[in-house]
């Protein structure tokens, strides 16, 4: 759905400890970052505390209360089986946020590893980058669709599929900033002084590529939540009865007119999560790369 | 050899390995999808001998590399094989569905480009004002809300309650252009929401970059009208960004159409591939994946070239 090839390339910068605390202070003062942090924080807490915030189970059917509109007993109403939508959305948050987080983490680890390797070893560069080009030639949602179908629909398949789809842009970003850092005088000096490749990679290239990657990963987190919802909506993602925001919408779709609440609330969940993560990403980008500041 | 031709040749040469890998990835779908294709093709009731016969006739008992070679050979002859589910060849199924997806993607781009560029420029010009913050809020919502969800709500409101648009289905352009537009307008607009959000964010930052430069101040001090400054001086310089954005937007439109076609029951390529995957129609999925992959290799190539021609400072050596 979203091609993440869009992340601008960053000028690599070198950070002293004092600058790091300055970055933190600027982040805390950044408006978008504050709102994003708040939204994501609230959703994350709700997801973690999930079972404690509700007194019913996501799959518990209150047959006499089918299609109940939102009310005190069922905050977000109930669905065609009389299941409590509030509880389902809460449990869905656990699934969606976990998938997004896992994909961002995996994309981060593989993106960093492959990107640094490609920048450091010319012999690997061609193979790695051409494979990434090829993977990026498929629309992310389609690639993920194919992989989830191959692995069988489940939450872990979704995580693997989306990771494959979102690793390539990360590799490009890390490689690009690593190539810049490698040419910096002090890295060249370290090389001349006899530092070996692993040391150069870990001590110099890695810390300096983290910023741009972090910005990218906050957007990947958002894309992954959207993509998971879309896959589950299409029926190849998280399978019912396990609630995910995407499959609650898919299940409620046929009743959207009589019982709008089934579809409305999980959609708001997805939207708030992605808005929050986009704001976080905007804040990080402004602070970590002032050149791109809007 | 002129530098331009040299550049095109180099780019083409660099695309060759990518095309190869894309084809292999598309081919791998057959081996990755669960189940044994021979069993699925032969049917549930088939005897082991019948399954073996199917396996042999499809060449599935040969070494992987031979299968790949045969597949390549067929592809270059335009032979994508037969669909297992639809009673037609993969090539004809794709050709039949292609106009729908192209219409959808084209219409959404036509909506996106003027609105996205307009909103982004407006936000950049009135930077920091309420115009800027409202445009950016709209853009943020655009890139954040899931399209299938908005689609569901929009169908409920505009199609079912108000009856302005059909809730699903497609009418070919040649048959009735007005009905074609009516069928595609709502899906295209919803597909555009993300694209508009994305493009206006990108336009804004590109324009801000240009507005901060010396030649804009010079132009102002010469007394050139604001409209001319924005439309000629600033926008010309932001054009390189628009080229890059168009490539990404095309990819977003075609990727997004996979989901939107499903919601609106539009018989496009995206719906074809989703159905193919769900029905384990291997040749179909392979064919569509290959076409998607090759299309994007081509789009990226064109964007790359356009980029380096639009901005002479960009050179690839």
UniProtKB/TrEMBL annotation, chain A:
What's a single GO BP term from this record? transmembrane transport
Task: Write the record's keywords in alphabetical order, separated by commas.
Answer: Cell membrane, Membrane, Peptide transport, Protein transport, Transmembrane, Transmembrane helix, Transport
Gene Ontology CC annotations of this record:
plasma membrane
Where the record annotates domain ABC transmembrane type-1, the positions are: 93-281
Q: How does this protein sit in the membrane?
A: Multi-pass membrane protein
| Presence of the UniProt keyword Transcription regulation in the record | no
Which Pfam families does this entry report, sorted A to Z?
BPD_transp_1 (PF00528), OppC_N (PF12911)
SUPFAM superfamilies given in the database record? MetI-like
Localization, UniProt: Cell membrane
Which Gene3D superfamilies did the record assign? Answer: MetI-like
Where does the UniProt entry say this protein principally localizes? membrane
Parts of the chain that traverse the membrane? 28-49, 97-119, 140-166, 214-238, 258-281
PANTHER family recorded for this chain? D,D-DIPEPTIDE TRANSPORT SYSTEM PERMEASE PROTEIN DDPC-RELATED, OLIGOPEPTIDE TRANSPORT SYSTEM PERMEASE PROTEIN APPC
Which family is it part of?
Answer: Belongs to the binding-protein-dependent transport system permease family.
What's this protein's name? ABC transporter permease
Gene source species: Acidisoma cellulosilyticum
The root-end lineage is: Bacteria, Pseudomonadati, Pseudomonadota, Alphaproteobacteria, Acetobacterales
UniProtKB/TrEMBL annotation, chain B:
Q: Predominant location of this chain?
A: membrane
| Keyword hit for Zinc | no
GO MF entry, a single one:
dipeptide transmembrane transporter activity
- Key word ATP-binding present: no
GO cellular component terms, alphabetically, are: plasma membrane
**What does the record say about its membrane topology?**
Multi-pass membrane protein
Source organism superkingdom: Bacteria
Keywords of this entry? Cell membrane, Membrane, Transmembrane, Transmembrane helix, Transport
Location in the cell: Cell membrane
Q: Where in this chain does the record put each ABC transmembrane type-1 domain?
A: 98-307
Q: Which residues cross the membrane?
A: 12-33, 104-126, 138-165, 180-199, 238-264, 284-307
Family membership noted in the UniProt record: Belongs to the binding-protein-dependent transport system permease family.
PANTHER family assigned: DIPEPTIDE TRANSPORT SYSTEM PERMEASE PROTEIN DPPB-RELATED (PTHR43163)
Write the protein's name: ABC transporter permease
Give the originating organism: Acidisoma cellulosilyticum
